[in-house]
Amino acid sequence: MRTLFQGFIALTLLCSIHVAFAEPDRELVYKLKASIVKVHVITQTGGHGVGTGVVVAKDTVATNCHVLANSNGISISKFGESISPVGMVADWAHDACLLKFQYLELVPVKLASATSLHYGDEVFTIGFPGGPPKPQTIAGKVRALYPFDAGTVVRTDAAFVMGSSGSPTFNQAGELVSLSTFKSPGKRAYFYSIPVEWVQALMQKDSVSTPVPDGTPFWDLPPLERPYWMQVVQPYQNSDWKELEAVSRAWLSQQPGSAEAAFYLASALHGQGQLDAAQQAYQQSVALQPAHIDAWIGLAILAQQKQQTEKLADAENHIRQLDAQAFADLQQRLQENR
Question: Would residue 122 count as lying in a domain?
Fold first, then answer.
């Protein structure tokens, strides 16, 4: 799993908020693990790379294309056996790939839709972070949703590291919604997954691809060609409020209904001490996305700064309803700032 941003995303002006995750049903996870495979590649230098794949249809495994790129050999392993694909279908721009097999006696998972997700939904991933012999399960929550190229890129708290690329993200019903794909480095990293809709589109195509890329993944394009929700990362991380404001305003001009764009604009204005304008932007964000907990936290901190008792209580009430642990952490931070 390659790191795709230089530097990590931190919660600007906000203190570290710990989120509690519910563990998925053990019987469901046990059943799903039977459909998860480890993907092995032989690199051009003779090295060994590892990723994760999930069976999405008869004789078909989905993973990330960057796991397979420029490899000299590809196989999957399951139950101690190694199997090589007979074909491949690739969408390099979206980093979605399918491996085709003969007589792959593994049961496909059920497919849902990334568009069915909501902020705060509990999800979990199953993969091979660090290359362990058995797949590992990591729980998290949906933190942001980004409409993009006839799909929705999902950001969650379900952390992953090398070996996790291509690992499936499931909703609480055990339905596949996305594939873990890229992250920002650092202790407060953000974790992104590509929508299952891009995988489903590939399932309608013939196996004509090779491990040689015919395009660049959207996350690896030059910075100014990336989607706005990626362009905000560096200025947000570096507290470059002027740049963050410029990118956020450009984003809002193209997507006036984006709660994320409004949140980053609010953060930029907050960082520059423009409290009234920041408050308005935070309120726009939560009006567009009532479960945007980061925007509510921003409103709580700002209300404390402005000594607005009623608005602080309102923000605290929303945060308490969204996440009890986040509310408890916020209370501690607010107390420290008094």
Answer: yes
Give the pLDDT confidence of 10-67 residue by residue, as tens digits.
223 333 444 455 678 899 999 999 999 999 999 888 899 999 999 999 999 999 999 9
Which backbone phi and psi does 81 adopt, to 5 degrees?
A: -110, 150
256 & 304 share domain = yes
Contact 152, 145 (CB under 8 A): yes
Q: Same structural domain for residues 85 and 127?
A: no
Could you tell me the residue range of the domain that residue 55 belongs to? 34-108+203-220
Same domain, 240 and 331: yes
Write the single-letter amino acid at 70: N
Same domain? 228 vs 311: yes
Contact 164/177 with Cβ under 8 angstroms?
no
CA distance 7 to 250: 23
Cβ atoms within 10 Å of 60's Cβ, excluding its own: 23
Tens of pLDDT, residue by residue over 194-213, are 999 999 999 999 888 999 99
| Same domain membership, residue 98 and residue 166 | no
CA distance 68 to 88: 10
DSSP string, 249-266: HHHHHH-TT-HHHHHHHH
- How many domains in the chain? 3
Q: Distance between CA 74 and CA 49 in Å, rounded?
A: 10
- Among 161, 174, 151, residue whose Cα is nearest residue 36: 174
Identify the domain boundary among 186, 220, 254.
220
The three-state DSSP-derived secondary structure of 78-146 is ECCEEECCCEEEEEHHHCEEEEECCCCCCCCCCECCHHHCCCCCEEEEEECCCCCCCCEEEEEEEEEEE
Predicted TM-score (pTM) of this structure: 0.90
